Amino acid sequence: MENQNDVEQNLKIEDRGILTPQQCSECDKVFTCNSVLIKHFRIHTGENAYKCSLCGKAFSHNGGLKVHMMIHTEERPFQCSQCDKTFITNTQLKRHIREVHTGERTYKCSQCDKDYISKCSLTKHMIIHTGERHYQCSQCNKAFYEKGVFKTHMLIHTVLSVQ
């Protein structure tokens, strides 16, 4: 695995200052901006350079720390105009409006007629079509779509081993 200095040195900038698209050496994602590639690469290195002085939680990006600090300051600058509920980020406010007030379902399944409020919900649904089962029990080899269902299943083995 390359370190962050290697990544920074390998970025190529053309003569006119236009950035040549660069591919992450770990996951093949492509970026056209050095700073975005460098920040992205921290996912692979596990580097968490930004640490909360109040609770010690660490983040790979300054933006993550800024949002986190609002938990401690109780700052919630984004207010819903329909119910006065407040949120830390604009993304949270938009999701709230979609889920609570408009019921807008912008994420549509390409394989059936179902649609969803969030990308996460659609991703969970797509497992039905792909048959992916990422969670496999090492004791009985059953496989599960969702982590929560897998954890519940594992309790069965815990209870059986105690008896």
What's the level 1 CATH class of the largest domain?
Alpha Beta
- What characterizes the major β-sheet? 2 strands, antiparallel
How many domains make up the coordinates? 3
Fraction of residues in helix: 40-55%
Structural class, by secondary structure, is alpha+beta
Q: What is the CATH T-level topology of the largest domain?
A: Double Stranded RNA Binding Domain
**Number of continuous helical runs:** 6
Say which CATH homologous superfamily of the largest domain is assigned.
Classic Zinc Finger
Overall geometry: extended
Find the count of extended strands (DSSP E, 2+ residues): 10
**In whole angstroms, how far apart are the ends?**
46 Å
Instruction: Report mean pLDDT, rounded to a whole number.
Output: 82
Secondary-structure element sequence?
HEEHEEHEEHEEHEEH
Q: Name the strands of the widest sheet in spatial order.
A: 1-2
* CATH architecture label of the largest domain: 2-Layer Sandwich
Parts with pLDDT < 50 across at least 5 consecutive residues: 7-17
Measured by DSSP, the beta-strand proportion falls in 5-15%
Domain C2H2-type: 22-49, 50-77, 78-106, 107-134, 135-158
GO molecular function: zinc ion binding
Pfam family, one: zf-C2H2
Keywords: Metal-binding, Nucleus, Repeat, Zinc, Zinc-finger
